[in-house]
Amino acid sequence: MAINIYISPAIVNIIIFSEITRLQGRSLLFNPFLKAPPAPLTFVTYTTVANIPNGINNFKYRLTNPNNEKIHETGLSAVEVKQNCFSNVLIWKNVHFKTKGEHTITLYLSTKSGFEPAGSAVLFIDDINLKAHDV
């Protein structure tokens, strides 16, 4: 006798961009990146979440350093989900990255028992050699 277990996890994709630019009246996310120098940074995350129930869903983000210590946590956000998916653009202003290494941005979705991590993205903080044309 086999036991069928049906798991339906949320599908989350978080992409980190350096800025929002305007082109012909449209706002466009510009310059995706995965690595940055240790310094205060302003950046944008674009998140898509799929395979979740329709209706009002609550979520928040948490940014942690390589020691899994919380650097920043957003407030609670609510979104009305239609067609079992939603997207979100969040601007992170003047986030101070002091520790080199792998920093994690995690999206938490609200559940009956609290918030559960649904997906994450990694940002590597390390020294970067800039060429003259990059400045």
Can you put this structure into words, describing what you see?
Helix content is 0%, strand content 64%. The chain has 135 residues and is mainly beta. The protein has a single domain, classed as Macroglobulin (MG2) domain (Immunoglobulin-like). Strands 3, 5, 6, 7, 9 and 10 form a 6-stranded mixed beta sheet that branches. Strands 2-1-4-8 form a 4-stranded antiparallel beta sheet, with no helix packed on it. 11% of the residues are buried.
What spatial form do the alpha-carbon principal axes imply?
A: globular
Low-confidence segments, given as residue ranges, are none
How many strand units?
Answer: 10
- Largest sheet, strands/sense/barrel: 6 strands, mixed
The CATH architecture can be named as Sandwich
User: Taking Cα atoms only, what radius of gyration do you get, to the nearest Å?
Assistant: 17 Å
The CATH homologous superfamily is called Macroglobulin (MG2) domain
Q: How much strand content do the residues show? A: over 45%
The overall average pLDDT, rounded, is 88
The domain count comes to 1
CATH topology: Immunoglobulin-like
Give the C-level CATH assignment.
Answer: Mainly Beta
In sequence order, what are the helices and strands, one letter per element? EEEEEEEEEE
The count of helical stretches stands at 0
C-alpha end-to-end distance: 65 Å
Structural class: mainly beta
Percentage of residues in helical conformation: under 10%
